[in-house]
Amino acid sequence: MPPAAESGTTDAPADIRRPNRGSGFLGRIRARRQALRDAVRTRLWPVPAAAVVSGIIAGILLPELDARLDPELPAAVTGYLFGGGADAARTILGTIATALMTVTSLTFSLTLVTLQLASSQYSPRLLRTFSGDPFVQRTLALFLGTFTYALTVLRTVRNADGGVNEFVPQFSVTTAYALGVACVLALVLFLGHLVRQIRIETMLDQVATEAIATGRRLLRPLDPDDHPAPPPPPPPNPRITPAAGSGFLVEIDEQRLLDIAVECDTVLWVQHTVGDTVVAGTPAVLRPDSGADIDHRIAGALHHGRERTTTQDLGYGIRQLTDVVVRALSPGINDPTTAVHGLNSAATVLRAFADRHCGPVTLVDHHGTARVHLPRPDLPELLDTACTQPRYYGAHDPLVLHGLLSLLGALGHTCRREGDRAAVREQLSRVGLTIADQEFDDGARRGLEEHLAVVAATALR
């Protein structure tokens, strides 16, 4: 029997996850598709690059369609098409291309200014949110695609010269005109969208929404009748699989690890949580020393990157929100209202996680034998991330302390597991000690103490 069958003790119970029949290959495909979707979504260039290619293809095919159209089209159709000569067509296409290059430069400049503002004013970890904004990507795609299309069509316009007949692609030029009008409208909408995007409420809502979506995708709902067993400790003299690369652990191929463990009849203990910083050569996975050399296969299931992502990282959203709170409390910014908004968003995310099974995960085979143990942050860890630094940096501001108490009160009403409720009580105790250490006036102290008493009396009954 593998060592996983032995009993052990640990502080946090593990979620037992059983494989579905035929889920191995399909599960891996879904995981890779999600990772690819996230990689494309959070980068600024893929959608505009695809639009450039589409503009070239359309600029080649539509003039071919024009050449094959019946020259004797009905007046009801030709009345809506471009009716000028070759010189007029060149003027229109050249004007569209020149204007769009200027507009695109302006759009890029505004986007970069917004990114700089978000990085310096709120948190550099919000840049992924801006670069992944689909409205910005599609606006740039429309501008660049139209610019490329106009240039490509321009090369097909010909004047009558000797034995060469004049060729004016009426339908293609009309399409370029329609795209130009669409670009003007898109520029107006983009400016309005950009003004809304730089509002702190919008950014916090986007981070919270993405964090909640990650939790719903990765965590199963709590079952009142489910009592997960603690995962066994690793063997006393394990074989160590070192990390293959340095950076953030951004993804774990769980199905691949399970397949390796079942194939080699072993048990794997992953040592890092997704989102942790990993140094190449340090221990990444532990397993019994069976003599089989499968380290390269195990290391290949752990994917590293230069920045954290929301693909499998449950704590990244809380980290982003906490960074916004801490930055708002810095002496150079001194914006406690923004800090309170960040705490409210963190409360929304934590309440969504409280209804799901956070904590370590144990993957079992079809016989119910534990094969892979994966660490994951539980709710007390996430709560500590959301509260510790704001409590430290906002200790002198009653407004921030009220925000922390509201967060704990909201979460206390939601928690259903005793361990989570104990974590809320511990954070309440820490906030109480912080209040006692400060030199507030009588009114501010009385208000905080009353708020603390109300939360302790109602949220954790």
UniProtKB/TrEMBL annotation:
Residues 229-239 have a biased composition (Pro residues). Residues 1-23, 219-244 are annotated as: Disordered. The keyword Transmembrane helix applies. It comes from the Bacteria. Keywords: Membrane, Transmembrane, Transmembrane helix. The chain crosses the membrane at residues 42-62, 92-118, 139-157, 177-195. Pfam families: DUF2254. InterPro entries: DUF2254_membrane. This is DUF2254 domain-containing protein.
